[in-house]
Amino acid sequence: MLKLKYSDKNFECGTDEAGRGCLAGPVTAAAVILPQNFKNVILNDSKLLSEKKRILLKPIIEQESITYGVAHVYQEEIDDINILNASILAMHKSIEKLNPSTEFIIVDGNRFKPFKNIPFETIIKGDSKYLSIAAASVLAKTYRDEYMNKIHEEFPMYNWKKNKGYPTKEHRAAIKAFGVTKYHRKTFKLLPEE
């Protein structure tokens, strides 16, 4: 069972991102503050859930959380500031949207930069330990998937609807055949060295 809280603060948010390893599209982060009495038996790290379960959980998280925020940082900015900084920026932007604001931040992973003067803790595999980080991972993933499905219509030959911009064989074959789009991250190694 995932834990509800890390700190003793009432308004503790969990934050996580999706799309860090993708070749195209934004990196998306979410931040979620859950109420003290929140319970959910399905909720877990989004990578451990089927797409169907993530889609089922999204409205539950949105309705039952005290507040949540979701933010995209797009490929141009990723190329400008690098993917680690872009991931942290997306988390900061999502935390900024929280109302009421958070008193403590728990972050999935081991890298974060201070946000305002709010205390934080980075937690390795936090998305499979804490409900708020798991909730943030589900929102980040579902919002990013929706965005990738939308841009798929514009460039169907890359099949982003299926691969969501990740470096699958099919995605790389399409880059080879059709070149890169405005949605591709130009600083990423889009094709393996021949």
Outline the biggest β-sheet.
5 strands, mixed
Strand percentage: 15-25%
Question: Total number of helical segments?
Answer: 6
Number of individual domains: 1
**Proper CATH architecture:** 2-Layer Sandwich
Ranges where pLDDT stays below 50 over 5 or more residues in a row are none
N to C succession of SSEs: EEHEHHEEHHH
**Helical percent range?**
25-40%
Please name the fourth-level CATH homologous superfamily: Ribonuclease H-like superfamily/Ribonuclease H
N- and C-termini, Cα separation: 46 Å
Report strand order across the widest sheet: 3-2-1-4-5
- Average predicted local confidence, pLDDT: 97
Determine the CATH topology: Nucleotidyltransferase, domain 5
Computed structural class: alpha/beta
Radius of gyration computed on alpha carbons: 17 Å
Instruction: Provide the CATH top-level class.
Output: Alpha Beta
User: How many runs of DSSP E, i.e. beta strands?
Assistant: 5
Anisotropy-based shape = globular
Cofactor: Mg(2+); Mn(2+)
Protein name: Ribonuclease HII
Organism: Postechiella marina
InterPro entries: RNase_HII (IPR022898), RNase_HII/HIII (IPR001352), RNase_HII/HIII_dom (IPR024567), RNaseH-like_sf (IPR012337), RNaseH_sf (IPR036397)
Notes on the protein architecture:
With 194 residues, this protein is an alpha/beta fold. The protein has a single domain (12-178), classed as Ribonuclease H-like superfamily/Ribonuclease H (Nucleotidyltransferase, domain 5), CATH 3.30.420.10. Helix 1 packs across helix 4 (131-154) and helix 2 (75-81) crosses helix 3. It contains six helices and five strands, in the order E-E-H-E-H-H-E-E-H-H-H.
